[in-house]
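User: For my dataset I need records formatted as: sequence, then structure tokens, nothing else. Please produce one.
Assistant:
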Amino acid sequence: IAIVYISRILRFIPDKKTVQVWIEKLGKKENDFRKQAQGELLFLYNLIHPNDVWGGRQLELMLEDQTNNYIAQRGIAFGASKNWKFLEHQDLCKKCIIALSKTSDPITQKAVSSIFPYGEKVTLNISMKNIINAILPNDGIVTHSAENLVKGVADQINLEPKLIGEICHRIIEVGRDEIRNYGSRYSMVAEPLVKICLTLHRMQSPYR
């Protein structure tokens, strides 16, 4: 509860040094909740103070070391996915998501995939296309993202046939066996995949 409260008032605290001390203290104890909270608060700190040298350096160090900082990286991933909807924050969100695109941690993979909300269109701007290209090689992220991503890009196939074709190819590649199982998470992906594939087939080469 205290962490949630701190995150809400973070931007109203004028003394950056005080916030820096809080963030550092969170990660000093061997507690998964505190470490994840440290990652998310550090991400929020960088949103609020985008030009802060200390915050930028700490975030880079945390993103670089996926062996020792994977729990804190969960918090960064959740923060980046949650704040992607705000245009002014997308540069930082993109940087963090791409840095975490090779993660093998299942919780971080799921957090990254939440950048594609259920039932919402995925706007394929340059930043989002960079993110998609970065995460496609990661089987875990593809698995978690499959339904929301396919449905979110389906109506943009005439604008981005190559990218959407690559998305469908990877989803089929990763979930080939599960797609045939009506009880799997991929059962909801089969229909939009077929529609996209038929549309691509009707297009001129090289998309058919």
